[in-house]
Amino acid sequence: MATSTAWHIRGSYFESCNCDPICPCRRVDGEAGGRSTHGVCTGLLSWLIEEGEARGVDLSGLPVALAFRYDDDEPGSPWLWILYVPEEASDEQRAALEAVFTGRLGGDAQRHFPWAWKASDLVAVRPAAIEVDHARRRQWLRVRDLATVRIRDRYAAQAVVSCVIPGYDRDGEELVAEELALHDGPFEVELHEVCGYGSTFEYAG
Questions:
Q1: Which percentage of the chain shows pLDDT scores above 90?
Q2: Could you report the per-residue pLDDT of 170-202, keeping only the tens digit for each?
Q3: pLDDT one-digit tens code per residue, 118-138
Q4: 3 lies in a domain?
Q5: Does 179 map to a domain?
């Protein structure tokens, strides 16, 4: 069982996956989500920590990204995932980020991260050059030559949407990704005009 340690981070969040907008995994106008558009969901999540610390280590200003895939028809729908931590961070910062985002420190991670509460397969934790901009409706992310997401704009047919990862209690906005590309190990994806989502997050444990 994970041991909860004093930690707290907050900032901005955006994601993109291969589902059609509005992503059916989200809660829409208060209705719970369901199966992904294609039955197998793959994509990229990103967080930009504005302020926070874990294990006494300052994490302010650091980005984190996560590539994933899961199959709705596989029992338990376990996640296959890679965690990207910034290569420019110190060893202590990278270790703290890994502890938070793998769920080892418990707390809110056990409510918001499906890969932490399910039996899932972590492929790797990779230090990488992460470039990110969370400007609203123009978000973009690049993880070295491994992953790219570029948001085109908000999705035209808006509804009240929310996502478990930042939290169903937080306001969010459905987006359209101009590009979603993943080229890393088990992930080989080149997609356009797929769904995206932007919000804020605040986790603690």
A1: 92
A2: 989 999 999 999 999 999 999 999 999 999 999
A3: 999 999 999 999 999 999 999
A4: no
A5: yes
CA distance 23 to 13: 16
Cis peptide before 22 (omega within 30 of 0): yes
User: DSSP 3-state helix, strand, coil percentages of the chain (rounded to 5)?
Assistant: 10, 50, 40
Assess if residue 2 is contained within a domain. no
Q: What is the largest CA-CA distance in the chain?
A: 44
For residue 103, what is the enclosing H or E element?
Answer: none
Q: Which of 34, 14, 74, 21 is nearest to 191 (CA)?
A: 21
pTM (two decimals): 0.95
Half-sphere exposure of 77 (CA within 13 A, CB side): 15
Name beta bridge partners: 11: 49, 201
Report how far apart, in Å, the C-alpha atoms of 12 and of each of 17, 70, 100, 117, 151 are: 18, 24, 16, 22, 15
Instruction: From residue 108, give the alpha-carbon distance in Å to each of 2, 111, 112, 122, 196.
Output: 12, 5, 6, 19, 23
The domain of 96 spans 11-204
